[in-house]
Amino acid sequence: MFVVTQGQKLLALDPQARSKGTAFPAPGEWQYPAETDRRLGASYTPPTLAGDVLYAVTYTEGTANQGKLRALNAASGLLLWEFAAAEIVSQPAVKDGLVYLGSSDSHAYALDAGTGQVRWKFKTGHKIWANVALDDSRSAYVASLDHKLYALNAADGTQQWTFPTGGALASAPAIDRSTLFFGSADGRLYAVNARSGEKQWELNLGAWLWATPLLNKGILYAGSLDGQVVAVDASSGKQVWDQPYRTDGPVSAAALMVGDILVVAAQSGKVYGLDPATGRLRWNYVADPSGQIFSSPAADAQSIYLAPGNQRLIALDGARGQPTWVHRTEG
Amino acid sequence: MPEFVTVAWNTLFFQPMLNFIIVLYGLLFHNFGLTVLVFTVLIRLAMLPFTLKQLRATKAMSRLQPELSKLQKRFGDDKQKLTQAQMQLYKEYGVNPLGCAVPTIIQFPIWIGLYQSIQKALGATPQDLMDLSRHLYSGFDFVQSLVPLESRFLWLDLGQPDPLYVFPVLVGGSMWFQQKMATMPTQDPKQQQMNSMMQWMMPIMFGYFTVSFSSGLALYWFVSNVISMVIQYFVTGWGSLTFMGRLPAMIGIGNSTAAVVTVAVTPPQSETAETRQINGKPGNKRQNRRRGR
Description:
The complex is a heterodimer of chains A (331) and B (293).
Chain A: E1 2-4, E2 10-12, H1 15-20, E3 30-32, E4 48-50, E5 53-57, E6 67-73, E7 79-85, E8 93-95, E9 98-102, E10 107-112, E11 118-123, E12 133-134, E13 139-143, E14 148-153, E15 159-164, E16 174-176, E17 179-183, E18 188-193, E19 199-204, E20 214-216, E21 219-223, E22 228-233, E23 245-246, E24 256-258, E25 261-265, E26 270-274, E27 281-286, E28 298-299, E29 303-306, E30 312-317, E31 323-328
Antiparallel strand pairs in A: 1-2, 2-3, 4-5, 5-6, 6-7, 8-9, 9-10, 10-11, 12-13, 13-14, 14-15, 16-17, 17-18, 18-19, 20-21, 21-22, 22-23, 24-25, 25-26, 26-27, 28-29, 29-30, 30-31
Chain B: H1 3-27, H2 32-46, H3 48-75, H4 79-93, H5 102-121, H6 126-135, H7 141-145, E1 152-153, E2 156-157, H8 166-182, H9 189-212, H10 215-236, H11 242-250, H12 285-290
Antiparallel strand pairs in B: 1-2
Helix pairs in contact in B: 1-2, 1-5, 2-10, 3-4, 3-10, 8-9, 8-10
């Protein structure tokens, strides 16, 4: 498990060792930078693991308005290469030997995964905070704060089509075969044909949609910044639940499924386990009473892993929403 | 701060101002610098009645200065009698000393609201943008469609302080000139000392604020100062900025350098009793008004 802490360290953690409370670092665990007085920089984004390489980004480093993408050996934490750009919020996406990344300098980049050299870059009209979404048709989808979704040829970065919306796009689309689903700051959820860029349907939810919607068994689950969570039929765009579930804070993190529970984290610091069929509450857990949850939780088959703003990494039992272990990070 | 105060402030003042500024930005070609300029002009226009009242009150207070000095000499340490006599004098001349402070007091919430609006509207981080969404009027697609705003104007990022320190100098300098114009000449040494202190303190203070505040707010202050100077000129003239009064003659325009002005303070009813002599000739009303006498 890899996590970037608020203390600006990248940690490789062994969940088994953490559940036993073994002193850090247990065998196989490491931190980057290794020196206690060095820090990475502020980060909004979880790292991406591709093979034996870990790709981690920082938003800014020091006083410079510049973030970095680092490629590290996932086993040892040794730095392989690094790439500097403007502030980076986008999580790296890796496919066919390329690392795709959006930057606040308005560019989407494709870098050589082995060396970090730029293979191509594509300029949009504003910052790119969303991850670059990749599908099987060799297309890359770039959502920009300039209100547009761009479809690019993933190999060379040439533009295939664009889809304009009425608001900023802060997150990547979810992809289901030939359809892209994404939310916009215009308060609408869109379904767009991935090949042609034509709209299939739109649903006005009346509040900013920030995170990538979760697609599970033909149902889309989306949270909005006014705290609503909705379930929408992916084929028709009709709401499935009797009414949206209302959390007690903005939802900016993507939802996820753990077993048969829909897990949603709100910025209030509370995590909700919902019935995906009805939207009824199964459990909730206050991960950080005074803090916030901005990053999306991670999960494996049974557990949910949260990194709230109170310097803790928390593992929850997915079925009951109870903590199984808590690891306190430095800073 | 109590929660209800924050809610009231946001609902009644900050959010209307923020949304108005964003609408203005949409109408002004998505240029936030131009938006701040036009916003400043609109605010100053809305405040014009108060500003005029303030300037007239300041002018009247200045005219009363010799009378007030006499009262101070007459009553000495008897504060109660002095206050009574001063109030009587104010009443007699129809002067409200508090009238001088109203525009300044009104400007404080505007500064705070504008500062908040600029910080929120031009916020650069994901948290800033998410936070902005809470303050935008839902249902107004036009407002939502303008976000995120472009913060670049000339060499400035209007959400950040001026990196070249040009605006601290412009704000401090324009405020010095404006203060100098606003200060009416006085013979009272105490008043002169006070004026002199204010003359330097305010520009230095605002220049210092400008170093660390967003340059959007600095732009507001600078434009606002320039507008103040223009209004001031038409109401009270150059004030203590005497060299500016001589400037036209120094550069060979007109013949107003030898302005000799004698003002005898009299009740407003007998305005014609004011003895005025400009360039040795009785000045017409328009000339006198421009010279602030």
